[in-house]
Write a structure and sequence with these properties.
The protein is mainly α. Helix content is 62%, strand content 2%. It folds into 2 domains: 75 residues, Endonuclease Iii, domain 2 (Orthogonal Bundle), CATH 1.10.1670; 108 residues, Hypothetical protein, domain 2 (Endonuclease III, domain 1), CATH 1.10.340.
Amino acid sequence: MEIFQYGQREIEYLKKKDKKLAEAIDRIGFITREVIPDLFAALVNSIVGQQISMKAADTVWARMQERFSEITPESIALKTTEEVQQCGMTMKKAIYIKNIADAVLSGEFKITELYELPDDEVCKRLSALNGIGVWTAQMLMTFCLQRPNIVSWDDLAIRRGMMMLYHHRKLDKVMFEKYRRRYSPYGTVAALYLWEISVGK
């Protein structure tokens, strides 16, 4: 199992920048979050996780791993859309996954180029694919590419964690951006803690 890499430098920086976050970091301790180093598998995982709970996403992902053993464009191409869908996802998601596998195999979508691109360009390239929006692109940048400064406005749990940490009843984009800038350039590590806070840790 590979985990998201961060250490003392990021922790010290965030603690110095934000007293409330510092208290949460001390309380929660080091966070172990699994990452998926393979870009295609991580992209499929992000699609699976769209608009469902983490627990439900984990169940579907486990079924996919059982059925495909390795999640590659080739292994997906060998199955029908119905077989992909039978892992427990919607037909729409199964179609997205099949289409992306085809695009990678045909060379229409050059997935390995994402490693070298800046965050905005990664988002732009991925959002051009059917079924991929900003949130999915940001999850890929977090849990595969391990980009250091991703805090997703589109992630409800991150927003909930922020509201809980700072005792806000509401959170608008302006306020969110203020915190996001405060965490920069280590926003992703802050996001890991906000996720933990959102589930009551």
